[in-house]
Every structure is written in C-alpha cells, then in structure tokens.
Amino acid sequence: MRDNARPMQLSELRQRLTALGAGPLHAQRVLRHWLHALPADAGRRKPEHHFPKALFGALPALREELAGLARLQAEHPGEDGSARLLVALRDGQTVESVRLPRGGLCVSTQVGCAVGCAFCMTGTGGLLRQLGSAEILAQVALARAGRPVNKVVFMGMGEPAHNLDAVLEAIELLGTVGGIGHKNLVFSTVGDDRAFEALPRGAVKPALALSLHTTKPDLREQLLPRAPRLTPTELVERAEAYARATGYPVQYQWTLLYGVNDGDDEIDGIVRLLGGRYGVLNLIPYNAVDGLPFQRPAWEKAADIARRLHRQGILTKLRHSAGQDVDAGCGQLRARSLDTGERVVALRRRAVSGPSPLLPSAGAP
Ligand code: SF4
Hints:
The protein is an alpha/beta fold and 365 residues long. The chain is built from 13 helices and twelve strands. Strands 1-2-3-4-7-8-9-10-11-12 form a ten-stranded mixed β-sheet, sandwiched between helices. The protein has a two-stranded antiparallel sheet with strand order 5-6. The longest helix is centred in the N-terminal third of the chain and has 15 residues, at 53-67.
C-alpha cells in the first residue's frame, strides 16, 4: 500500500505497472492513455485482450488514482483565450496551471517556492513541498481532458531547478509518450548550475527560459534573494552554450517593474549583455500583487523600451502574463482560494488594457 502523503513519482508508477505484469508496451499504453486523457477502451486492441490479467483487473482503480493526482478546483477563464486553473492535489494542497492560447499549458513544479522573488506572491510563502513527477504530468492530463495541449512550459509555481529530477522525468515522458515536440517543452529557471549541467544530458532536451529581470548583479540579488549567486553575465554565458547545443534560442524573461528595472541604464545593459546572443527577450509588464511594493509601468513606456531595444539589435517581444485579467500573478489564485475557501469553478474578471497575452512570465508574477 503506498503512502498517500508522499508525492507520486513516475518511476514509482512504472514499478507498480511492472509488478502487475506489464511489459514495456503495456506500460506505454497505460501512460499514453493517461497523458492524453483517452478513455480506457481507446485504441484498436481491447484492453482485456492486450493487458495481462492482473494489470487489467487493477486498471480501474489505477486510473481513478491517477485522476486523483490533480483535480480541477476552480477555473478562471481570461479574455485572451487562456484560463487559470486552480488544481487540487491529493493531500489537499493546491497549485496553479494556466491554459494558454493556441494549445499551450503552463504547469507548476512545486507547492510554493524557495527562491523568494521580491515581486512574486508564490515567493512570499516559501516552499511547502515538491511535486512528484506524476503530479506534474497529471496537470497535463487534466488540461488535456478539456482541450488539446501541444506545448508545456514549466513556468508556474516553483523553481524547476529545485525539483530537478522530477521535472526532468516529466519532460522525458512528455517528449516521448506525451507526444510534445521537444522545443515545445520549456524549462524555466532563475539560473542554476545543476540545471545547466543536467539539461544537455537528457534524452529530451527542452527549450530554455531564463528569468533575468535585470542586468545588475546587486539588484538581482535583491529581487531574487535566494537564487544561486550567478551574475547576469555568467547566466547568459551558460544559457547561450545550451542554446547553441540544442538549436533553440534562449527565452530571456524580464518582468518589467516600474522605476526598478525599466530605466535607460538597463536598456544599455541589455544591449551589452544580449547583443549578438542567440535568444529572444520577453518583456512582461508586472502584474501588481496586493501587499507587494511593485508597480507595472505604463504600456506605452514598455512598448518604447521594446522599440529601443529592437532598434539596437535585440530581438524583443512585449508580452502580458496570460489571463492577467483573472488574478494572473503566480500564486494569486492559490492565495485567494486559501482566503476564501473557494471550491467552485468560478469566473472573475477585471478590466485589462493592451494587446492579447501570449505567455506568462516565469512564475508569472
Ligand atoms: S517568480 Fe518563480 S522563482 Fe521567483 S519566487 Fe515566484 S515562483 Fe519562485
């Protein structure tokens, strides 16, 4: 009997399938049906003819158990076609996933986060627990029950590098049985040597998103107080090496904070740091969080920064956090559900200006 308080890992699930008599093809079929949200009898061969008896008998309970790894607690559709999902885990903890326009999905990798970014709601509460790889995958299965998913970005709650084994295990399954193109798997990090070392060794190599936020080492230490002490220059060098090795450009994430990292000095610093690099800079105007002392710059100001960077040869995209009309900041849905005991699928909107959101920032603050 498994201990339900322990996060389920994919490796454990595989072991259980083997113990039930599953060969590699049987295990693959169980995992594929789960990850693609297919009915039990989907496919040419009937399960009773394909599976060993013990496995066939255990399947209904197993499917129920897998469905229970991530259940929809609340859904908040945005005006841009995205939807923020509050997902309940089996132990009662909750995390957020975001269905993005055009088949993307942003998943969480931890309950809470230890990096403690000064502008992030999730960072204020610290790390509560790791997600198991099966719980990360379950967010994809849950989302696919409602809509196709062809891209998965690891930009929700948590720092993927702090739960590296589980995230890499999930990535490998998504890039194989899960049917997602490798460049459509996006590993997002504040920058961590363990991740830079592990990613090139994986059988499935995801694209890389690096949360930069500033070119100034001192400011970065203040904004990301518990991120590894790598300078922006060191981070860019490591990310560049990975991008050249994989052929996927780095997605540099920059949460624009009014009066903090939106000045001319940062524009000059970006040109020096990213000029000639193989990457794209995503500028994401901040989504204000109650109780945190940061503000979003005006859209016109953000657009002007993007234009100036473009003119100086930096490929720059100005983006909103997806679904930012519905408490888009990473961790805000979860925090609100803890406040209100929210239990229903809810719709809540507030006014939003500017073009359609495309991608969330890392942690989508
Ligand atoms: S922005 Fe991301 S890395 Fe920073 S505290 Fe929030 S979830 Fe963690």
